[in-house]
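Thread: "does anyone have the structure for this chain?"

Original post by V.I.:
We have the sequence but no experimental structure in hand. Need at least a predicted one for the grant figures.
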Amino acid sequence: MRKTPNAELDRKTVTDFKAATKNPFVIVLDNVRSFHNVGSVFRTADAFLLEGIYLCGICPRPPHRDIRKTALGASDSVKWQYFEQTIDAIQQLKADGYRIIAIEQADDSISLENYALQPQQKYALIFGHEVKGVDPAVMQLIDDCIEIPQFGTKHSLNISVSAGVVTWDFWCKYNASRK
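Reply from O.Q.:
Generated one for you, tokens below.
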């Protein structure tokens, strides 16, 4: 098997990325404190052509060398906004027609593999603080809660891993529904 060289990967330029039709998903980071986690989420948002990222509360913001180090330039391609309060971001997203989904371990959460996307719906995926999770006040505003099934001893994934798992799942379901 031959490894594909970078020159053959058909990568978009930043200009091409910005002009491309995006998948109808926004990631909301609720007080995520790690520069590296934020940078990693930028890369995930770039990889799956997401509409953007909302950085809230204590989230670090570009430009910053530690975000850039992990994002590998995706903080230049992916549209982002900052909100001092996550609740303000949620209210704006609701007004713009997004379904608000928390990724959290909670009563009545839906296991990720069982969550069905609705055609023509836009989604905002909320990922919370590395230790405290999604803020309880934010949880009062959500439409649904998704939980990633886990079977080991920790029942905890790094936020950047969770964002990758959920985004991949949503991308697959969304694109399967368009065929």
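V.I.: this helps a lot. The longest strand covers residues 23-30.
O.Q.: and Helices lie at 14-19, 35-47, 65-71, 74-77, 86-95, 136-139, 159-177.
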